[in-house]
Structure formats: C-alpha cells, structure tokens
Amino acid sequence: REVSCKLQTGLQGLNQMLGKRGAFALGECAAFFALNHNYKSGMLMTIARGLVKYNTPQFIPGKGKPLILFITLENEANRDLMWFYEYAYKQTFRKNCDGLSDEEIISFIQDFYSEQGFEFIIERRDGGKYGYDEHVSLIESYESAGYNVVAVLVDYANKMKKGSSGNPSTSQKGNHNLIGDLFSNLCTFHKTKGILFITAHQLNRDAQTLVSNIKVNVVKHFGPQFAADSIDVCRELDLEIYMLIERNLSGKKFLTMQRGKHRYVDDTPVAHMYCAYPFEEIDGVNVGIADDINGEPGFVRDIYTCSDDENNNSLDDEFTSVF
Fold first, then answer.
1. Three-class SS string for the chain?
2. Pairing state of beta strands 253-262 and 274-278?
3. At residue 259, what are phi and psi to the nearest 5 degrees?
4. Above 80 in pLDDT, residue 131?
5. pLDDT in tens, 45-97
6. Quick check: 178 and 170 in contact, CB under 8 A?
7. What pTM, to 2 d.p., does this model score?
C-alpha cells in the first residue's frame, strides 16, 4: 500500500511495530486493546502528544490549519489537559510543575503543543449522547471552520452511543451487531476522509483469565477473540495492538505491547512486533511512558532479561491504574 503521508509517534518501539515506514498512515484505523487500568487512556494521550510534537504539517496534504483532535468520553477534559501539561513541563524543565496559575498553564500548553504548527484540541463528550452521527457533525464542523483534520483519537469509541437516529432497524439489532456497525461506520468515514483514527478497546473476561493462568509474557497470547462485546471490532480495523502492564522478577513495572494484524503492512520483522516500556520518573515524579524518539531506545524486547540497574519500585499501582 502506497502511503502519501506518515505520522510517527514519540515511541521508537511503537514506530518499529508499524513496518519499514515506522509510522501511522493517513486514513488508517487503529485500536489499542487492554484490560481495565492498563494504560489505555495513557497510551492514547502519549500518541496524541507524539503526533503533535514529532511531525511537520507542511508535508500533510489538504488545506487549512492542521488539527490533531482528542475526544474524551472517559475522563474529564480538564484532567486530560493537566496530564498533557504536566508531562510537557516536566520534560522541559526536569522538575515538578506546582505553583503556576491557570493562565500560565494554558499559555504553556499552547506554546508547547503548537511548536510544529499543529492545532491540538481536546473535546469532552457524553458518550450516551455522542454517536456516529454526532461524530461526523463534529468533524465536519471543524472542516467548515477552516481546519484540516489530520488525526482523531477517541477515548474510547465503544463508549459512544450505538445506532443511528436515521436508521429504523437499529432497535432490532443486538449490542454485538451495533458495535460492529459503529466501528464499520467510523472506519469507513475516516478512511474516506483520509483521517488517521485511533481508539482503545476493552479486553474481555477470558483475557483476564488468561492473565491469571499464564502470568508471563501474556500479551503475546492476546488476539481478536479477547475483544470485549464484539469481535467485529477487529474485523473493521487496519491495526490491532494489545497491551498489558506486567512486572518482571525484580518487580519493575512495564507496559508490554504486542502487535496483532496490520492490514497492507507485511514488512514488520517478528522481533519488532513486541516491545515493553518501563514507567518512568522525572525528579521523583511519575510521568508514565517517556518518549524516546530523540535518544537511546527506552524500550526492551524482554522484560525478564533487562538490566535491574534501572529498576524502580516506587511507581505505585495508583498512578498506572488511573489510565
């Protein structure tokens, strides 16, 4: 598949999962699958941060102000805003970010995330009232306002309202089919528009049972059959990536990731389909998964053979589980 524009993340290990191009493509539809409290929201925010910071919009086709849109149905918008702010501040100044006024915080975020020329907007929507029709209207409203919508991240799509107000057969369908229809419509819409679409999705109880039974490198055993509510979700996607927080024998906590299918991409070495990132600290403050695109790789291929010199057991479960 010929790719006209590539969008890399701030994570070398994730970029390598995406084949020789080392990036997402416009019009691609991807989902990150994980159990409860396994960094789904955190990963979506990490990706959004990387799209804004490590790509140059002048190479992106289309007219208008290039926009990266983050839609949260899971968290309050101000909570996500603070996450983006705290990471940016700590990475820039290598210290905690207490003491700034609301105006200073907003100004810092705008400067930090607009440096490359993108507009970065966080929208909060009520999933019970926000479905496919409303999503289309929102995207088209931004286009009418002069934006070139480059990427949309939804945290997360399965919380959206199912069915369409203009489709009388909706009430006759089960939840399984409605979820399949939602993902089919979302993927078709973004592909047609040439917009990168990324979301996260819950894994089911069978996945939790697998974690209890296998315990080691469990993420390598995840697949479409473990998608919660409907396997039709995976049928519509171009890219599946599975995640699980796992500790090695020394207690060091990693976010492990395993790539599933990637439609039209067949040049990813098997060794690159798995990676694991440690949860990091800056001056004793938890910052989650740190970008490593401009330095030495921050990921490992085997959490059980990596050096314990970097071991840090102070990262508590509360920090990683909130996402």
1. CCCCCEECCCCHHHHHHCCCCCCEECCCEEEEEECCCCCHHHHHHHHHHHHHHCCCHHHCCCCCEEEEEEEECCCCHHHHHHHHHHHHHHHHHCCCCCCCCHHHHHHHHHHHHCCCCCEEEEEECCCCCCEHHHHHHHHHHHHHCCEEEEEEEEECHHHCECCCCCCHHHHHCCHHHHHHHHHHHHHHHHHHHCCEEEEEEEECHHHHHHHHHHCCCHHHHCCHHHECCCCHHHHHCCEEEEEEEEECCCCCEEEEEEEEEECCCCCCCHHHHEEEEECEEECCEEEECCCCCCCCCCCECCCCCCCHHHCCCCCCHHHHHCC
2. antiparallel
3. -80, 135
4. yes
5. 999 999 999 999 988 888 899 999 999 997 777 788 788 888 777 767 767 77
6. yes
7. 0.90
- Provide the CA 132 distance to its chain's centre, in angstroms: 20
Distance CA 9, CA 279 (A): 17
Task: Dig out the tokens for 78 from the structure.
Answer: 């101000």
Where b means 16+ CB within 10 Å and e means fewer, 15-47 reads: bbbbbeebbbbbbbbbbbbbbeebbbbbbbbbb
- State yes or no: pLDDT of 4 exceeds 80: no
What would the two tokens of residue 126 be?
């009520």
More confident residue, 120 or 314: 120
Percent of the chain with pLDDT over 90: 68
Residue partners of 202: CB distance under 8 A and separation at least 6:
33, 34, 35, 36, 40, 156, 158, 227, 228, 229
Judging by beta carbons within 10 Å of its beta carbon (0-12, 13-18, 19+), is residue 317 exposed, middle or buried? exposed
Residue 245 main-chain phi, psi, to 5 deg: -80, 125
In the chain, the percentage of residues whose pLDDT exceeds 70 is 87
If you average pLDDT over residues 153-159, what whole number do you get? 96
Query: Across all residues in the chain, what is the average pLDDT?
Result: 88
Task: Find out whether 249 and 304 touch, Cβ atoms under 8 Å.
Answer: yes
